[in-house]
Specification:
The chain is built from 1 helix and 6 strands, in the order ββββββα. It is mainly beta. It has one domain. The N terminus is likely disordered. Bound molecules: zinc ion (ZN). The site of zinc ion has 7 residues, from loops.
Length: 101
């Protein structure tokens, strides 16, 4: 169990957790959105035990990643650029590994 202590997650978490961003990771362009405007299908998501969590969303034939940030009672929702499912899926895996943020 030594070594797992640095992961600040609740013991009963079952969700995905993003790895800490690597110093030279790719930068995702995040655009502010109003989450109530459009319902999208959530295909995958990270654990919401964290103040920032991510969702892999589908809208029509396109996908994007949504980032939800909770700060002092405020909730900020942003989206990556919508693009082909295959491209967004790659971005999603980079994000989880800490290679994009
Ligand atoms: Zn968690």
């Amino acid at each position: 169990m030594a070594g797992s202590k640095r992961r600040p997650y609740a013991d009963d978490c079952i969700g995905l957790h993003v790895e800490a961003a690597h110093r030279d990771c790719a930068r995702i362009d995040w655009n502010l959105v109003r989450p109530d405007v459009e319902r999208m299908r959530v295909r995958d998501h990270t654990c919401d035990c964290q103040p920032v969590f991510y969702e892999l969303c589908q809208a029509g034939g396109q996908r994007c990643i949504r980032r939800t940030t909770r700060k002092g009672g405020r909730v900020v929702v942003e989206e990556s650029v919508r693009t082909a499912a295959s491209r967004t899926d790659i971005l999603w895996s980079l994000l989880l590994r800490g290679d994009a943020r």
